[in-house]
Amino acid sequence: MRIKIINPNTTQAFTDALQQLADSVARPDTQVLAVSPATGPASIESFYDEALAVPGVLEEVARGEREENIDAYVLACFGDPGLYAARELTDKPVLGIAEAAFHMASMAGACFSVVTTAPRVRFMTEHLVSRYGFNEHCKRIRTTPMRVLDLATSPDTAIAKVIAECRLAMAEDKAEAIVLGCAGMSAHREYIEREIGIPVIDGTVAAVKLCEAMVDMKLGTSKVLTFNWPRPELAAPGKGLKIA
Amino acid sequence: MRIKIINPNTTQAFTDALQQLADSVARPDTQVLAVSPATGPASIESFYDEALAVPGVLEEVARGEREENIDAYVLACFGDPGLYAARELTDKPVLGIAEAAFHMASMAGACFSVVTTAPRVRFMTEHLVSRYGFNEHCKRIRTTPMRVLDLATSPDTAIAKVIAECRLAMAEDKAEAIVLGCAGMSAHREYIEREIGIPVIDGTVAAVKLCEAMVDMKLGTSKVLTFNWPRPELAAPGKGLKIA
Amino acid sequence: MRIKIINPNTTQAFTDALQQLADSVARPDTQVLAVSPATGPASIESFYDEALAVPGVLEEVARGEREENIDAYVLACFGDPGLYAARELTDKPVLGIAEAAFHMASMAGACFSVVTTAPRVRFMTEHLVSRYGFNEHCKRIRTTPMRVLDLATSPDTAIAKVIAECRLAMAEDKAEAIVLGCAGMSAHREYIEREIGIPVIDGTVAAVKLCEAMVDMKLGTSKVLTFNWPRPELAAPGKGLKIA
Amino acid sequence: MRIKIINPNTTQAFTDALQQLADSVARPDTQVLAVSPATGPASIESFYDEALAVPGVLEEVARGEREENIDAYVLACFGDPGLYAARELTDKPVLGIAEAAFHMASMAGACFSVVTTAPRVRFMTEHLVSRYGFNEHCKRIRTTPMRVLDLATSPDTAIAKVIAECRLAMAEDKAEAIVLGCAGMSAHREYIEREIGIPVIDGTVAAVKLCEAMVDMKLGTSKVLTFNWPRPELAAPGKGLKIA
Amino acid sequence: MRIKIINPNTTQAFTDALQQLADSVARPDTQVLAVSPATGPASIESFYDEALAVPGVLEEVARGEREENIDAYVLACFGDPGLYAARELTDKPVLGIAEAAFHMASMAGACFSVVTTAPRVRFMTEHLVSRYGFNEHCKRIRTTPMRVLDLATSPDTAIAKVIAECRLAMAEDKAEAIVLGCAGMSAHREYIEREIGIPVIDGTVAAVKLCEAMVDMKLGTSKVLTFNWPRPELAAPGKGLKIA
Amino acid sequence: MRIKIINPNTTQAFTDALQQLADSVARPDTQVLAVSPATGPASIESFYDEALAVPGVLEEVARGEREENIDAYVLACFGDPGLYAARELTDKPVLGIAEAAFHMASMAGACFSVVTTAPRVRFMTEHLVSRYGFNEHCKRIRTTPMRVLDLATSPDTAIAKVIAECRLAMAEDKAEAIVLGCAGMSAHREYIEREIGIPVIDGTVAAVKLCEAMVDMKLGTSKVLTFNWPRPELAAPGKGLKIA
């Protein structure tokens, strides 16, 4: 099967890391195609950044439908930007990495905390936790005093901060699993898990494996109402989508 | 004061109706500027439509900041598309019409129901009700078998359906106020209210009056964290925003 | 229009302060009439105090209907005592200042905390937050080790404590706006806001401006069921209410 | 032990019925004293009625403390009017009959519905259900087209309506127990239960038995903060309360 | 009346203590029969322990129905193991001690915290709080670094830790009552209450008194659906239950 | 990998059907071992049935750990009996089929309804929906007037009833996906889906695919606290578990 991972920001280093990570966890019969849109923000740390990123995300889904023969889509930014709109463009599964990580974490531990980057995304993450139904499972959103791009420029310092925050999550929140709240941390998941000794869930890995499961189940996106196709004058799936 | 109403769709008839409606309720010292973006969907009835509309909405907020000396913004589509992103572009109040209507309705009646257009928006509206905290006040989202544009093309039939649904809301949900769930119904608010005999709240009217209140209170958007300005490389408020 | 502010306690200094404050924010065409009942508690810091204050509040609403030609009512005590009962006595808007402050705060910041006086009111305030639907927006009720009347007798010390608590709300709760949980703090709102740098909402100001908005909208209290008029044998609106 | 039942309305026929009912369920060593205040509404069917009734309720609690050597108090109106204020006047248990009924019903059946009188009390009852924590246990508030006093003037017709509504609760809500939502129905509890075949809980009975249990447990009202005594200038428990 | 207390673990010292405690609070006309199953875990501190204990609990309920003429049952372990299954085996009341304690605590104080033993039971206790509807009343589950059996082997040290935790509950959670989260603490309830000065609720005491109340009310377990008798091939109440 | 499916009831026809179903969806490199315990109830339709089934379920998990080299466990009864206890016996993934189905359904459609067998399981299913966090996603639990074993004895009639109920879920609840609430329906999933035209999720299929995903992710059960191993005196994993 073919899974397309859409990194909604334009930082190619992150896209490359996602490709490598996904390749390492995908099944032999799964091809992963990690892309990032031509234009958009270099990182996504606010609602405005998300808004800038969404048209590019949708264009990539549309291209996937039109010409790439894709079986499932992963939106690889922890805010799941454009998730519901993307679901209208396809009847294949479309998963956000926050969504995927929360589901998996809730099956691995009695409760979890999210450890993420800049404090600014707390409100956004709280809304996702609430919208997806994890208010009881998720004990706390923990932010660290760093920017997303610090994970690329000074990974050692950044990951040390992440690990310290994970330990606080264990001691103070009694978290029994950790969700990494930023796709930029994905490459360090194993190391963090080894250091802290409880399951650490990366959303991209979770989403790739959930996509494989859904494709095997022939389970896609229900088109009966909410995620029905866009109206013809706006978009013709498989032909040529008109995205503003 | 100057209030800018942004109709996120490109149907000029709706924009004109919003201008007229807002003029009729605004205070003498309030100037209302109703606009719609140059490009975007003709109506907004799904998440995809919203996603197409958001860049235009943000561009209008940015223009307001840059050159129009605006005191407050109203997003005149019942899904409040781009609301949180728009708040990052200004320290003035920015209100969505769903948000404004829910607040006002909860102060006017013990409970309310929403009467809106096509069934497809139910899920979207439920999320807004939940996100803004009105799960107990809002008894039900009632959709009618019509499209948004029916309100423009055959208003009599459309409004008759709306009134019938309002009466069901009173009989079945025991609703004590009605929120109109579509900016296209705004012009008919008074007529509907007279017919059914309980308060009928239109979000655009509510938002304009709440903007006046907030401006008088010198109450804008808190910039301390979540809605802080976009990062300089993405946007320079007052200078020239780079929207994808 | 004519707005009647009812201070449910009998401390005239607070009533005078409310009059002055409201005059400073009301529109030129708005007359504000601040009163306090003839009898009742000197301050309201418990459920029992509230119960003592309610009959006087209702008498003032009844008098407003009977002889004062009032367009809207504000109950200026943060427990909103008698709010729902008062709504039965009139078809005009009746707003509590806790209710008004919560609504306004939720439109100004991503989340808020309440800073109020004596610890004893915490439970009461939590119930209001929950009843009005602000459990997710309101991060915490913060009480200070002081009595309501300390705000009148030693305002400098009292306000310093309030400001310290606001700073804790920012640091610990990540509050993006502050709601002042006591009408006695109203006069100091601007000063506190200047000191802490995020929006500070006073309920009396919020309620006055919301009343103006609702009157302009011709939006009153729905009389269809819950807040219908009292039965004739108990009360004859506009004639002479019999309050025990 | 001595339990005082306070009927907050002034209809002596109801008070007599409560005395008789309580005598029939109280233990031999329990003396029940059913009273109604000297003044107040003849029935309680709205928030305004409640507000009129509260001062009389509090006066009866104060008299109980001052001169009647009471061990526990029951507020025998389904809106639990003045419950929290009454708790400040004593360190003995004070139970509302709605509260008592909900607790007992949740231990008798998997879920329950409330069957009560006039539609107007629905909102009030919903708030009690929510405040006390029974949103999941309570399936629905069912009102009947009758007034409280109909239970006294034409009991046969009234009870037939109640039974019909109970049967709807079983068929439509799948209720496994019924809570009678009005003290005026108490005398008919056994008959209704026999007719419908599932547990029917009357709040007055429930409250009397819970009072006996709490007194045996030496469990009263915690005075540490929220329900602490009124301030001395307002009330001197055991001496003479000043109620407005 | 005859109340059977089932201690789900096999530690006879705890069973004896429960018998003694219950005898000291039961009415003169109440006979208490405290038992523990023949086999099962020595203490219950995890879901697995609970699963081991449930068959023995059910066998004791079945024996009570078959040959002991029991009027009500108490499951004396704070996880309420097998509560809903036990309710299928009888039409008498069956109460768990966590359930009983939460109900009583919510009528005694504005809010409460639970103080219990090993950290491992936190998740289990949170679920009970949530399932029974006490999410708003219960401020926090506080665990102490001890094992259940420490209460038997070194009670002084263990109780000192419990009291310290209760004091933290008062200072940090603002708890106005304490629920003891382990049947092993029951014997020390009075001492703890005297030390900390707010109501301390023991679940076994609460359950015994609630059983007496329910039996007096002729209120048992609704058999209409959820807790209906087991199917004949599995169990014949009053004849001989087949428990695996 | 090796996945063990434990059918908690002793009806071999169901176990065989589960084996066949799982084989048809498992990956080529996955071996599925479907078993049912030696003793236990023939079907599980109440809490009592669940209690009877749990020891057998746990014994099968223990055997899996001891001698069968299992990588993940599926509990194939829609009440997820013994799920949390089973997680203590292993550090591998253990999934209930209700849990698995809810997670998958929430990623496939905007909302779903559950269609299950006898009315008696409604309360049990509601608790699972609530405990796992799906109160907003799950619109309704729909029961059909049938017994679990009807699915084996007269499948045509039974499935016709299920399909009729699914159609009601679409029309009345606006469900966009259906979760089959009984393992006995699994074999008919495809047929039902084809008939009704929206995604139909079977929990066993969902759980098998989620297990494969979790094993690939090296994600098991967090042993840090809640699901830590049983105490040595009760159980020695890998050696010989003592189950009552």
Automatic annotation (TrEMBL), chains A, B, C, D, E, F:
Name under which the protein is recorded: Hydantoin racemase
Q: GO molecular-function annotation terms?
A: amino-acid racemase activity; hydantoin racemase activity
- Signal peptide feature range: none
Record the organism: Oceanimonas pelagia
Which PANTHER family does this UniProt record tie to the protein?
PROTEIN DCG1
Catalysis: reaction(s)? D-5-isobutylhydantoin = L-5-isobutylhydantoin; a D-5-monosubstituted hydantoin = a L-5-monosubstituted hydantoin; D-5-benzylhydantoin = L-5-benzylhydantoin
What Pfam families is this protein classified in? Asp_Glu_race (PF01177)
Q: InterPro entries attached here?
A: Asp/Glu/hydantoin_racemase (IPR015942), Hydantoin_racemase-like (IPR052186), Iso_Racemase_Enz_sf (IPR053714)
Task: Tell me the protein family, please.
Answer: Belongs to the HyuE racemase family.
Question: Which EC numbers does the record give?
Answer: 5.1.99.5
